[in-house]
Write a structure and sequence with these properties.
Length: 351
């Protein structure tokens, strides 16, 4: 009954907005009404579908008393028995409060944590996994920084992932990823446990975060490669420190100091934006550190066990025995399950 009243109010509001727009309102009032109508029209369409299904159910129920129509009515009622609850569920999901960051592109950051060289190797594999996942969805994956160990692993890496609803899909990947396997360098065949931290931040526009140039300390220095050797003779690398928050971003991927500064500012803005979101939304992590944790082996959101060929997501207790597929970007089964779990939890919180 409560849902029915809410749906009636939404449908009535849509009619009200259509009437306003047809009356010839202009300026800011027109823009505001148009946006509100655009936001609720998908829900109104599903409400219309639900109302139509409910009328069909009532009509079929009335025909049960007619011997000639009973069989046909029972068949239609059987079909509607599942259709109506499914439509109600779709509408409830559509009415959940939206995270405006979901539609945005994202900044992906990956760093090895516990486990030495093996952690660096796995970090490189995770970075490649996300790159393949992005490519499979038609997203643009631009490497912002990739600092390698010289042994095939990485010290840290970041990328800008551009596309529709990137953050909505990748946000569940933030946290500690644990790998269990026998390192290629291990002669005695012992299984090692290593960890890698992943942070996914919604990309921020300049209008989202106001950064005062006076709050920045900008250091420039010579970029260095693996082993510490200088890879160019000019001071092209940039380190930006945001003094009020203590956030530090260093960038040396480009040969141009200007390009390195632009990339560093993009990451700084994303980190500050996520920090602001965290303070506004108590249900999210209190700050970026709680996303990635300390990297300790005991902390993890997902475990990749190579000897057993399994990947387990500990948040939803889902284990898939297809580690080879996962490592080449087959992540949708995990992400779909995490999305559904999140939606279920938010629906339950509203009851």
């Amino acid at each position: 009954m409560i849902l029915a009243l809410k749906l009636d109010r939404i449908a009535a509001r849509a009619d009200e907005l259509r009437a306003l727009l047809s009356d010839g309102i202009t300026g800011e009032a027109y823009v505001k009404a148009s946006k509100e109508l655009s936001d609720i029209e998908p829900v109104v369409a599903r409400i219309d579908d639900l109302r139509s299904a409910e009328r069909a159910r009532d009509d079929a129920s009335a025909l049960l008393a007619d011997p000639e129509m009973k069989e046909l009515a029972e068949a239609e009622l059987f079909e509607l028995k599942n259709k109506i609850p499914a439509l109600e569920h779709e509408i409830q999901l559509a009415l959940l409060p939206k995270d405006e960051a979901d539609a945005r592109s994202a900044i992906l950051e990956i760093r090895p944590a516990a486990g030495g060289d093996e952690a660096g190797l796995f970090a490189a594999e995770l970075f490649a996994m996300y790159q393949k996942y992005a490519e499979g969805r038609g997203w643009k994956f631009e490497i912002l920084e990739y600092s390698d160990t010289g042994l095939g692993g990485l010290k840290e890496a970041s990328a800008e992932v551009n596309g529709r609803n990137v953050f909505a899909r990748l946000k569940y990947e933030s946290g500690v990823h644990r790998v269990q396997r026998v390192p290629a360098t291990e002669s005695q065949g012992r299984i090692h446990t290593s960890t890698v931290t992943v942070a996914v931040l919604p990309e921020a526009e300049e209008v989202d975060v106001q950064i005062d140039e006076g709050d920045l300390r900008i250091d420039v220095y010579r970029a260095s490669g693996a082993g510490g050797q200088h890879v160019n003779k000019t001071e092209s690398a940039v380190r930006i420190t945001h003094l009020p928050t203590g956030i530090v971003v260093a960038m040396q991927e480009e040969k141009s100091q200007h390009k390195n500064r632009a990339k560093a500012m993009k990451i700084l803005r994303a980190r500050m934006y996520e920090q602001q979101r965290a303070s506004l939304h108590a249900t999210r992590a209190a700050d970026r550190k709680s996303q990635v944790g300390t990297g300790d082996r005991s902390e993890r959101i997902r475990t990749y066990n190579f000897p057993q060929g399994r990947v387990t997501d500990h948040r939803i207790n889902l284990t898939l025995y297809k580690i080879d597929r996962v490592m080449v970007g087959d992540l949708d089964e995990f992400i779909d399950a995490l999305t559904a779990e999140d939606q279920s939890a938010r629906l339950a919180a509203q009851e």
